[in-house]
Predict the structure.
Amino acid sequence: MLKLRPAIVIESEPAGASRERAAHTPAVHPREQRLVVELAAGGAAAGPRQAIADVTLVGRAEVGDEVIVNVQALDVGLGSGGFDVVHVNLTRGLSGDGAPGAHVMKLNYTSLQHAVEPVDDHDLQVPVARPVAVLALHGQLASVAWAYAQARPEGRLGYVQTAGGALPGGHSRTVAALRERGLLAGQITAGPAFGGEAEAITTAGGLHHGLRALGWDAAVCGPGPGIIGSGSWLGHGGMAALDSAHVALALGCPTTLVARMSSSDERPRHRAISHHTLTVLDLLLEPVTVALPAGMRSPVGVDLRAGLRAAFGGAAVPERASDGPDFARPVRITRHDWRRAGVDLPAYAASGLVAETMGRGPAEDPLFFGAALAGGSVLAELVGEAEQESARADSRERGDI
């Protein structure tokens, strides 16, 4: 059930305050307004509480406003949602005017359903033939975008946010920072995800619009901040990567999967190469490209089959392994195009971008950041290969070859 409580706003920050922020302060998405609220008597916890308002849904809040907040995420201690969320502003109300042309519902069948104008194109042009990198986690986005920009400084990389995350697109400070620095050309939220600069009905529609209509050279596709999870093999937001990869392949996009890897995750199922990634690689209907960081020890090493046996044998068996896919069939994993790419962890750590996952930085978890940086480098490689193939196709049409 919804856990809603009345509260009073005791501190408010202007929405999208990133333009005025100090250099060391995290960027703020233009849709997000940070607040401090105090619950009314009988609330879930005494004292000030951090809160977030999505200004395009509930409007701006000011000090003294009476609001209703959803306290569930903060009360259960979610790492990515550790704040209250404004449900309605009782002082200012909701105008409900919406945007001109809005006719498709997001958050449909809930009390927060609202109309948006979708960007899904009327004309389908396939193959799209522009590369897509599929993320396992939102925490990989900054590393992928930074590495891509190092290889292709003039490239236009866009982001399509899919299902699988815990928070709306408007709450991504990573996106705000990347947009501020010109490392992302745009953000589209697709399917049930909402809160981006543009809204798409489907992931396919979002990718097609970004790569065709907006002219992105490549796209990153994956869940928003936080990840939904149950600890089971299939019940987690990482499975959105399976759907996204299939969509990208169906559109004729060279597709790379950014592997979720870790040197030091406390959970055995996520150490080395995560079961999230291996499950997707096992279930994919067609092969994709998978990037590995060169010069880093990983369970796939030179001999992928032996590495998988080592990763999933003996003491390293992931939790609930008996209920999961049979990774003793490594042919399902080895059919993919595994590539190694050089990575520069010190340079990324010094970039000022997000460099933390579950409280660990590049020094504590080099494999996590190395795998994401490798994904960005390989995505840039795929763009180069796609351009070469396009040039060859043009030459064939002209009869040059």
